[in-house]
Amino acid sequence: MADQNSPLFDKQDIERRFRERQPTYKRLEDEATFVLAAKLDQASIKRHSITSRIKTLSSLLDKAERQQLSDPLSKMNDIVGVRVVCLFLSDIERVGQAIRDCVDVVEEDNKIEGQPASSFGYMSVHFVARMKEEYKGPRYDLISDIPFEIQVRTIAMDAWAAASHYLDYKTDVDIPKELRRDFYALSGLFYVADRHFETFAKEREKALTIVEKKLTAPHPELDVEVNLDSLTTYLRSKFKDREPSADEKTMSQVVQQLRDGGILTIKQLDEIIDAGWDAFLRYEKDHPPTVNEKPGEFIDVGIVRVLCSIASDKFRDARKDLPDNTRQQYADYQGYVSKKF
């Protein structure tokens, strides 16, 4: 009969085998992260972050002792872990589908559905997965049979989990009785914030659809305020033959510049563009931007900045970033604008 006080496993043996497998775990970590990130990009799913880790030896041994595992290296599914932090609640299912498409999911545990708000810090969806059989070749031979864990959660869930983890409260019973009410209240605020972010995202999509219908109709309704969504939609429609800006930060800067220059509606902007188009084309011909070391064309936001700087004194004056020689260059083309602004 085995001695009940004898250890479940040989720590030295586990440590030796764990260190031998480190390169394999590292390869699995890198491949799983790469495959998942590529799939999310392919599906155009925005995320806050995608991180990964290999469980430390001490963490592995602690878990093995807690769970009474005789051979933790073969019994644990989370020695290698990947975490995807997405933006909104609705993204969780989209990320989940991307996971199912790019790896073989062995187990799936939804720790979000049906959970009380007090459990918010522990909410996430967990997947146990393996690399798909279609990934073949020497680089996959040693990692194809090793399971790994993928966690998916929102920014709010991740922020609250990080804060509560820092406080070293692993479970509810760890929290002092006199602090539990405040702890649950804070957890509830993050829970509500997550829901409101989701609502806001959906309302933004509805608003964007309305703006798109107005600005892209056969007879566009242009009396719409200048903001990030309206300007992006308008420029995509107005300059179909020009490269669109993919940088939301730049687009946001142009929105601010337009507002500083007194151009508050898309209708105002459209009138300026129509009146100054000839002047802009002359300027672009004489001063083309350099693209791949060759003369090129301005992209949509470049057109707005240059054209409004030529056609509108107020817009040009509001651009404090302009060197004096460039400011004068723009003013020199103002005679080609068909209407004064």
Written description of the protein model:
With 341 residues, the chain is of the alpha+beta class. It has two domains: 11-192, Beta Polymerase, domain 2, CATH 3.30.460.10; 222-336, no CATH class. The chain has helices at residues 11-42, 57-66, 72-75, 89-102, 138-141, 155-166, 177-216, 228-238, 248-260, 266-286, 300-311, 313-318, 324-332; strands spanning 47-54, 80-86, 103-110, 125-131, 148-154, 290-291, 294-295. The strands form two sheets. The protein has a five-stranded mixed β-sheet with strand order 1-2-5-4-3. The protein has a two-stranded antiparallel sheet with strand order 6-7. Strand 6 (290-291) and strand 7 (294-295) form a beta hairpin. Helix 9 (248-260) runs parallel beside helix 11, helix 10 (266-286) crosses helix 11 and helix 11 (300-311) crosses helix 13 (324-332). The relative contact order is 0.07.
Key attributes of the depicted protein:
single chain; 341 residues; alpha+beta; Beta Polymerase, domain 2; 2 domains; five-stranded mixed β-sheet; two-stranded antiparallel ribbon; 13 helices; 55% helix; elongated
Average predicted local confidence, pLDDT: 90
CATH topology of the largest domain: the name is Beta Polymerase, domain 2
Order of helices and strands: HEHHEHEEHEHHHHHEEHHH
Which percent range fits the helix content? 55-70%
> What does the overall shape look like?
elongated
Describe the structure in brief:
This protein has 341 residues and is of the alpha+beta class. Helices cover 55% and strands 12% of the residues.
